[in-house]
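DoxX protein, Flavobacterium frigoris. Tokens?
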Amino acid sequence: MNNVASILILVFLAISFLQSGYDKLFYWKDNVDWLKGHFAKTPLRNQVPLALANVLVLELISGILCIVGCIELLINNGREFGFYGAVFSCITLLMLLFGQRLAKDYDGARTIVIYFIPAVMAVYWLN
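Tokens:
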């Protein structure tokens, strides 16, 4: 087991993104309503459903790639799916960070940075 740290980070990212995607998918209206208020004073105010759909798709892709990456690491020490899962995770987090900064939600942006650090570590380790 040379890949324990990478597997743990990929599991962390998979749980984070798949749970978030599940929440967006099954509580769509609640999320859209809350985000419309969150982005009311930003250029995204009229694009909330589209932006949320984009984030949902990226979160699901990230989570699925991270799970497949874990399986690949366990089966044959392959790193390709895990690497792409980590990269998609970083892209998703950067989009979320951009939105939080645009909304001037600096505490929310700071929280995203906490997730971004292990995602970048995974990109580095799986590269």
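The chain has one domain: 4-126.
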